[in-house]
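User: Assemble these into one structure.

Assistant: Restating your components, then the assembled model:
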Amino acid sequence: MNLIISTINNVDQTRNPSSFNINQMVMWNILIGLTLGIRILAYLAFHLISSPPETCKQITNLNDFYDYYIFILNMIKKKQLESFLQQVPDFEGKPNWNLEQHMTPPSFATEIIQLILNEESLENLICADFGCGTGMLTAGLLCCNVAHVFAYEFDQKVAQDTLQTLQEMHDGAFDLIITNIKHHKFPSQKVDLILMNPPFGTKEINIDTVFLLQAFQHSKGNVYSIHKSSTRQYLEKLALENKRTFKVLKEFQFPLPKKFMKYHKKDLAFTQVDFIKFGILKQKEDKQEI
Amino acid sequence: MRLLVHNLLMCNKCDKNNYPLKIEVNKSVIMELEFKKDAILKLIPKLDFEVLSNTVRELGFKQFPKQIPPNVEQDLAFLKDLHRVLFETHIMDGQLTCPNPSCKRNYPITNGIPNMILTEDEQ
C-alpha cells in the first residue's frame, strides 16, 4: 500500500515538478501506514487473545477460521450497533425524577441486544417497549429486523421528542403510544416479545411489579427486563406464580446520573442491576402430550 | 399513529364493549416504506383482520376486502394494499372514541401519538 502511494507521488513529481519535498511525503506515508497497521494488528491481537479463548487458541483447521471470521463479523456488528445507538440523545432538560427517568447507556443497550440475540432470533417479531423514555431499547430492537415495535411512554413531551429522533434515525416500523401502564388495558397476547427498562420502584413502590404483570399478560413470548438485584428473590417468586421461567442473563453496574442526587449523595452512583429473561413455562405440558 | 396500533387499543375506562375504538381522522400522511413480503405474511395471522378491514372501509377505502383472500401469498396487489394501509399511512391528527354508548370517552391523537392517559377521577 505504501509503495503504491509513494510511486504515485513519484509519478506526479516527474510530470509537474514543484517545490514540494518528495522525500518528506514518502516518509509521512510510511509513518501513517505503519502506525495504522500496528494499531489494527494490536486491536485484532488483543481481541484474539482476550475474548473467546476456545476458538482462537489454536487455529488449525478451516472450521476454526470460520469461527474466527464469524467472531470478527459479530464484533464489527456490535460496534456498528453501538455507534448507531450513540445517536440517541439523553433526556432534554430536567428529567422527571418522579417517573425515574434515566437513560439506558448505549453500551448497555448493545450488550442487552446481543444477549437477546443469543437467546432467540428477533426477525419478524412484534415487540413492545414499556416506558421507552429516550427510545434507546426501541432503537436497538429496530436494528434487528423486527416486524414492529410499540413503544409506550407516560411523559408526553418525552414521547414527542423520542418519536422525532427515532424517525430521523430510522425509517422503520415503530409507533409511540402515550399511556399509563398502570391502568392501560392490553388485548391479551398480541405481542411476541417485550423488552423494557422499567422504573426501579425507588420512588413509587411496586411500580416495577405492575410493569411486569402487565407485560406477562400482554406478551405471548419472552419478557426481558432490567431490575434491581436486591429484588431478585421476590421477582423469582413472582415469575413462578405467573408461570414464567426466571433466568438472570447478566449483572450490571447501572450508573445513575447526578440528577438523582436526592437519593444518592455521591457524584455518580451505581446500582447493582440484573438483566432478566422471563421465559414461558410450557415444555412440561408439551412433553406429556407427546 | 398507524392503523396497526388501532388494532391493539382498547378503551381504558370501561371493561366491556371497549374494542374496537371508533376512529376520526383530521389529518393523515403517507410515508413510504420498503415493502417486505415475508414480514407482512407473518404479520397477517397476528392481526384482528375484521376490525382492520371495517375501519379501513369506514375511512373511505371501499374496495378493501372483508376477509383475507384465499391465496394470500400470490395476491401481490392485496399485499401491497395491506402494506400501504398498515405501514405507510400515519394518522397525525384525530380522535379515538369508545364504542360503548354509556362511556364515549374521547382519546385525542396529536402529532401522530394517541394519548390514552385517564384523569385521576376516571381511574
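Chain A is about 45% helix and 15% strand.
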